[in-house]
Design brief:
The complex is a heterodimer of chains A (491) and B (542).
Chain A: H1 2-13, H2 36-48, H3 53-64, E1 70-72, H4 78-84, H5 98-120, H6 126-151, H7 175-192, H8 200-205, H9 209-222, H10 226-239, H11 250-260, E2 266-270, H12 280-285, E3 291-293, H13 295-302, E4 321-322, E5 327-328, H14 329-332, E6 352-356, H15 357-369, H16 374-388, H17 403-417, H18 424-437, H19 440-450, H20 456-464, H21 475-480
Helix pairs in contact in A: 2-5, 2-6, 5-6, 6-7, 7-9, 9-10, 9-15, 10-15, 15-16, 15-17, 16-17, 17-18, 18-19, 19-20
Chain B: H1 2-14, H2 29-35, H3 37-50, H4 53-56, E1 62-67, H5 69-79, H6 89-98, E2 100-101, E3 127-132, E4 135-140, E5 144-153, E6 156-161, H7 172-178, H8 183-191, H9 194-197, E7 213-218, H10 220-225, H11 231-238, H12 250-256, E8 259-261, H13 266-270, E9 274-276, E10 283-289, E11 292-295, E12 298-300, E13 303-305, E14 308-310, E15 317-319, E16 322-327, E17 341-344, H14 349-352, E18 363-365, E19 374-376, E20 382-386, E21 394-397, E22 408-416, E23 419-428, E24 439-444, E25 447-454, H15 464-470, E26 472-474, E27 483-493, E28 497-507, E29 514-522, E30 531-532, E31 538-539
Parallel strand pairs in B: 1-6, 7-16
Antiparallel strand pairs in B: 1-2, 3-4, 4-5, 5-6, 7-8, 9-10, 10-11, 11-14, 12-13, 15-16, 17-29, 18-20, 19-22, 20-21, 21-29, 22-28, 23-27, 23-29, 24-25, 24-28, 26-27, 30-31
Helix pairs in contact in B: 2-3, 3-5, 3-6
Classes of the chains: A mainly alpha (491), B alpha+beta (542).
Chain lengths: 491, 542
């Protein structure tokens, strides 16, 4: 009898708090995903992860260092110089993709668990839920699109994993599979994303229907689906929500588009601010900066009117870079026009510009060029150039019927318009690989010009192997995921 | 009882603790090869025959290019030998030495040219990358591809290669002689006696400066295009003394001019702007234009002189004492008479590219963005200064002297033709404060000139002739006593090239060292004219 009583006592006490193993200083998943506020917070968290220093640093390095717009300084790191000189090994820290997969994992988490919320929070409508999901899908697509262009074949992680940057043991998917997944995500996002959140900050800092179209347009062009690209661009152009900022007064234009950001021509930007500064000050702005603009940027890309200093391409001196010391002005500059003052470390909050309206116009122009609509393409280029007060020196008059001539001109114009925005390498690669690498010479000419004289031939020969256009998988990833196989060029 | 005792003993022996006596389990080169006998058993056998096994197994810093088993069996087949034992030991020793360098060199420091360390055999290895059927491999000596790179072991780096590397066997002389395309050039090499110069192995050469040489050879077709159908034509055109063996004979000099000091692959040639030749004090200039390697492609005195291309496909041929390149055009020593150079130092590409500043406003340069042809010691840089006129309305203001100013400034001159020049420093006299002083020694390529100059000294004004005798002149038009030309001495420029002129402050320190022009005027020419207007127009002697 006594024993029985004792047993009951134990049973009762097990219900009390001291056997409860839930953490008291955090939230566990079962208690989260209860209401729509939590859902929104989780989605915003995905965007917050974009502000990770490593991520934008990678995006800049991946998009620019192998191209011809950036020069090294005395302070450039060994890994960075190695990329510039086509000596890329799996031990290079910039081949790490953890920062991108971290954001992907946040998106996966939202995608996996958001649907629980609708059961517990009756005020959440299906429409709202879908809109949130659209953002997660769209962001995941954008991240995979960066990976596709940088690494080619990557593992498709589509389920949330417990560790932050930990992958399940996954095999690489082919480029086509990655692309298909991107398009699948974008299709969902396109249907459900909102057109506006009702304020500028969120319209430029969160994915809207239009930013989804922009990613689509870019990805369609990458895969040479020109009609689809034009259709996606037209949806943005015809919406009437975006336009090119006036370029008549360089200082105002620079202030609106680059210093403050979120201008009317912006479609999607990473929203650095005073609370979360970007990592660009030590990269571009400080006295011991690691990257400066290449000398050819002023001399050849924008051109210099020796006789009249007032005649200048607003995107050149004071737009993309400060000609006097080649500082990368887009991210390091505070003022433009006649007085060029640099940002201080505390002001280093320039946004990362993912898509601007000018990009849409030029993406469309490129697609038009390859669908026998060269004249329309050149009109679009003309509108970009006249806004920017481009010099006659950089004007070309290609035969509208010649797709390659028009598209080469567009490539040049893109280098002016998007200098240092992390697009140059992808642009050159897209042009080079078009029609099964029919125009590899575009890429080879670029690297030949850029290479140090004593390594030029080796570098050219390396780039002749098209497998070298994609990064190796970092050695750390290979150890962590035994299913991964190193890309053949780097084996 | 006895049985139990034995059992106890056995138990004890099982408990023995292994004492770790080595500090690391990292293997050395030999150790690594032994770990992978499937790939390297043949090479291991070679180094055990040659006795190199030992030193590759102990500490050091080596780079080993290791041919795998397939590579060595292909080599044996080529040699017609059944096994490595059948090859002469000395030959194997040379072979192994040719695969080893006494330094650790990873593929990231490979270039298009030679590795900057000799192999232990005493010949350079060249690296590169080649693309075959869309697949790029890093190559060594154009003989082997690297199949596994940068394997770090305790005493260095291993690169696995798919062919055995074989040292060059011909000297430059033999290589030219053996190539039927160079029959005319080869004959010229022989007739001038330079064949012997090109036929000595580096180890046997008593003149260490000529141990390694580089030849820019002209093929018969190149010479024919230039109108020389035979050696006789060449001799008739160049040989004035009739004895090509005479070092002063122009044919001798013509061949000398095609031989550069040192072993210079194309990658080395483009890394420097000029190269000394065996022709005394004559240089060839070089540049990379796009992907084209050009020599003697210069603008001289405002006139562009197109250069000669070195054919990439026919060049970079390694010989046992140097490297042979193929010139795609005929070139010879250019006979030039010294011409005066009136050099406006405040006119250089970096400032011209800043139209907002050039000719309009001052621009302070920082140490981080100095023009490429002007170097300062630091900590101070210089300022491009506009507005107080003279030539082209601008000058350079270069703070000099210690301790917070640079101790010296060095400028690269325009192309100066070989000859004797008087050097005039043309400056605006200015004292930063009443007591300021700034005495400088001027040197050209490290050779000090006879006189010093002082940026704060006003010139003594008297008649033109008297002033010239004292080493002063007006260089402006109209003349201005505040703008002085100071003759700092006569210099013999030995090579037609761009040279370095340096101002080293001996005494005093100030900011306002206003350098406007530097004149290099051949000593037998008019030193006082032309003078220059503010817009840069030269005014000749009336």
């Amino acid at each position: 009898m006594k024993y029985k009583f004792l047993l009951i006592m134990i049973f009762l006490s097990s219900c009390s708090k001291w056997l409860d193993v839930k953490p008291q200083d955090g939230i566990i998943r079962d208690n989260y995903w209860q209401n729509k506020e939590q859902l929104k917070a989780a989605v915003i968290g995905c965007y917050a992860s974009l502000l990770d220093n490593a991520l934008v640093q990678n995006l800049f390095v991946w998009g620019e260092l192998r191209a011809d717009m950036v020069s090294s300084t005395l302070y450039t790191t060994v890994d960075e110089i190695s990329i510039m000189q086509a000596n890329i090994l799996a031990s290079n820290s910039y081949t790490g993709w953890a920062a991108v997969y971290r954001t992907i994992n946040y998106c996966n988490t939202v995608i996996d668990f958001a649907s629980q919320v609708i059961e517990s929070d009756k005020t959440l409508t299906q429409e709202q839920l879908d809109a949130y999901l659209a953002e997660a899908h769209g962001l995941r697509a954008l991240m995979y699109y960066y990976l596709l262009r940088s690494f080619g074949e990557v593992p498709l992680q589509l389920k949330a994993s417990s560790g932050d940057d930990q992958l399940q043991q996954l095999k690489k998917s082919t480029q086509q599979e990655v692309y298909d997944q991107i398009m699948k995500d974008l299709l969902f996002a396109e249907q459900h994303a909102l057109e506006t959140y009702g304020n500028i900050l969120e319209d430029k800092g969160r994915l809207t229907k239009f930013s989804i179209y922009a990613i689509e347009a870019d990805a369609f062009l990458w895969m040479e689906k020109y009609d689809d690209c034009i259709a996606a661009c037209d949806k943005i152009i015809l919406s009437g929500r975006f336009g090119l900022m006036d370029g008549n007064v360089q200082s105002q234009w620079f202030n609106t588009v680059y210093f403050t950001g979120n201008s009317n021509e912006s479609i999607f930007e990473f929203q650095f601010d005073k609370q979360k500064l970007n990592p660009f000050y030590p990269m571009f702005g400080a006295a011991n900066n690691r990257f400066i603009g290449a000398p050819r940027v002023m001399e050849e890309v924008y051109g210099i009117d020796i006789t009249d200093a007032t005649k200048k391409d607003i995107r050149g001196d004071g737009g993309s870079m400060r000609a006097t010391d080649q500082m990368i002005w887009k991210f390091a500059g505070a003022t433009s026009g006649t007085q060029l003052d640099a940002r201080t470390a505390a002001d280093s909050y320039a946004h990362w510009f993912v898509y601007r309206f000018a990009d849409i116009l030029l993406l469309k122009a490129e697609a038009l060029a390859w669908t026998n609509r060269g004249t329309e393409a050149l009109e679009l280029v003309g509108s970009i150039r006249s806004r920017a007060h481009a010099l006659v020196f950089t004007e070309r008059t290609p035969d509208p019927a010649s797709a390659i001539d028009v598209s080469n001109y567009i490539l040049e114009e893109r280098s002016r318009e998007f200098a240092f925005e992390g697009k140059r390498w992808y642009d050159v690669l897209r042009h080079a690989k078009r029609n099964n690498y029919a125009h590899l010479d575009i890429l080879l000419d670029m690297v030949a010009f850029n290479a140090p004289g004593n390594m030029q031939q080796s570098i050219i020969n390396k780039y002749k192997d098209v497998r070298s256009h994609y990064f190796p998988i970092n050695q750390y990833e290979l150890q962590a995921d035994k299913q991964l196989v190193q890309n053949p060029y780097y084996q | 009882m006895r049985i139990v005792f034995i059992c106890l003993l056995l138990l004890c022996s099982c408990k023995k603790v292994a004492i770790v006596s080595n500090t690391t389990d990292e293997v050395n080169i030999t150790g690594y090869l032994q770990l992978h006998p499937d790939k390297f058993s043949s090479f291991l056998k070679i180094i055990s025959i040659t006795g190199d096994e030992g030193f590759l197994g102990v500490y050091g810093a080596y780079t080993a290019f290791v041919p795998d088993n397939d590579a060595i069996s292909a080599y044996l087949q080529l040699k017609g030998k059944g096994a490595v034992e059948n090859i002469d030991v000395q030959e194997l020793k040379d072979l192994v030495k040719f695969h080893l360098l006494e330094d650790t060199i990873s593929t990231s420091s490979f270039s298009d040219g030679k590795l900057n360390r000799l192999t232990m055999y005493g010949q350079y290895l060249i690296t590169g990358a080649s693309n075959k059927d869309g697949v790029t491999r890093i190559t060594v000596n154009r003989q082997a591809n690297i199949i596994e790179s940068n394997i770090r072991v305790g005493n260095g780096i291993i690169h696995v290669i798919d062919h055995v590397l074989q040292p060059a066997v011909y000297t430059l002389a033999a290589m030219i002689e053996n190539d039927p395309r160079y029959s005319i050039f080869s004959q010229a090499v022989k007739e001038t006696g330079l064949y012997d110069t090109l036929n000595i192995l580096p180890v046997a050469n008593t003149d260490s400066s000529r141990a390694w040489l580089t030849v820019l050879a002209e093929s018969d077709s190149v010479l024919k295009n230039a109108g020389f159908n035979s050696y006789a034509d060449l001799k008739a055109r160049f040989s004035y003394t009739g004895d090509p063996k005479n070092p002063d004979d122009s044919l001798h000099l013509y061949v000398d001019y095609h031989i550069l000091y040192g072993v210079k692959y194309l990658a080395d040639i483009v890394s420097s702007t000029s190269h000394n030749t065996l022709a005394p004090l004559e240089v060839v200039t070089s540049k990379l234009s796009g992907q084209t390697v050009l020599i003697n492609d210069d603008t001289f005195n405002g006139i562009y002189e197109p250069g000669v291309e070195l054919n990439r496909a026919g060049s970079d041929n390694a010989a046992s004492n140097g490297v042979l390149h193929a010139a795609m055009g005929h070139f010879s020593i250019k006979i030039r008479n010294p011409v005066p150079v009136y050099w406006d130092v405040a006119n250089f590409p970096e400032i011209r590219n800043l139209p907002a500043y050039f000719g309009k406003q001052n621009y302070p340069f920082a140490l981080t963005n100095m023009p490429k042809d002007i170097t300062v010691a630091g900590p101070s840089a210089m300022q491009y200064t506009v507005g107080s006129t003279y030539v082209n309305g601008d000058f350079l203001q270069i703070p000099l002297g210690g301790p917070n100013r640079s101790a010296w400034v060095e400028l690269r001159t325009p192309l100066l033709v070989r000859g004797k020049y008087k050097v005039w420093i043309c400056y605006r006299t200015q004292k930063q404060s009443g007591s300021s002083n700034n005495v400088n020694q001027i040197s050209v390529d490290g050779e000090p000139l006879q006189r010093t100059m002082n940026f704060t000294t006003s010139m003594p004004v008297s008649s033109e002739g008297e002033m010239e005798a004292q080493g002063w002149k007006w260089f402006t038009d109209p003349v201005s006593n505040g703008w002085a030309g100071r003759q700092v001495g006569t210099i013999e420029i030995k090579t037609t090239d761009r040279h370095l002129i340096r101002f080293t402050t001996l005494q005093g320190t100030q900011n306002t060292n206003n350098l406007d022009m530097i004149h290099f005027i051949p000593q037998d020419m008019d030193q006082l004219y032309p003078r220059f207007k503010t817009d840069g127009t030269p005014v000749p002697r009336p």
